Amino acid sequence: MITFALLNVCLFMEKKQESTGNEFFQWDKACETGIAKIDVQHRVIVKILNDLYDIVIGDKEEEKMKDIIHELVQYTIYHFGEEEKLFKKYGFPLEKEHKEEHQKFINKVKESVRLVEEDKGMVALELITFLKDWLTEHIMITDGKYAEYFKQKNIIVE
Ligand SMILES: [Fe+2]
Ligand SMILES: [Fe+2]
């Protein structure tokens, strides 16, 4: 069982400011699924999260923050849809459970976004922390299961 502490160092390792510039969360190669288009999408999610973080700790410009949260939600929904197409296409046996996780996450994020839009500051930071923690665990463990299944079945995703 992978501990939460290990999860944190694996995917979204917090960068030390003196060595890394502005980026807060860093993609770690150890967490790649090996499915090129999925890894690209996960990196996009990390990028959007980093952009959101920069705004929340930076100028806190409300419109920018709303736009980027919206972008994050839309892109994540798109990404989940892409994964779910693969589950159907290749008969992934844990399709139902995985889709339920996606749906619960979307519901939770939509609820959190409502809170952020009512009151910024800490709530936005809490949202980012929640997103980071959930996505780290989901990508490593839950997405890791279909990556492993595809590998075992020699499925090459185009
Ligand atoms: Fe994913
Ligand atoms: Fe997923």
Highlighted features:
158 residues; mainly alpha; Four Helix Bundle (Hemerythrin (Met), subunit A); 6 helices; 2 strands; 3% strand; binds fe (ii) ion
Secondary-structure map with pairings?
Blueprint: H1 4-10, E1 13-14, H2 17-20, E2 25-26, H3 36-57, H4 62-90, H5 95-118, H6 122-152
Antiparallel strand pairs: 1-2
Provide an overview of this structure.
There is one protein chain. This protein has 158 residues and is mainly α. It has a single domain, classed as Hemerythrin-like (Four Helix Bundle (Hemerythrin (Met), subunit A)), CATH 1.20.120. The chain contains 6 helices and 2 strands, in the order αβαβαααα. It has helices spanning 4-10, 17-20, 36-57, 62-90, 95-118, 122-152; strands at 13-14, 25-26. A two-stranded antiparallel ribbon has the order 1-2. Helix 3 (36-57) runs antiparallel to helix 4 (62-90). It is elongated, with a radius of gyration of 16 Å. 19% of the residues are buried. Residues 1-21 have low confidence and may be disordered. One fe (ii) ion is lined by residues 83, 98, 102, 138, 142-143. One fe (ii) ion binds at residues 42, 79, 83, 139, 143.
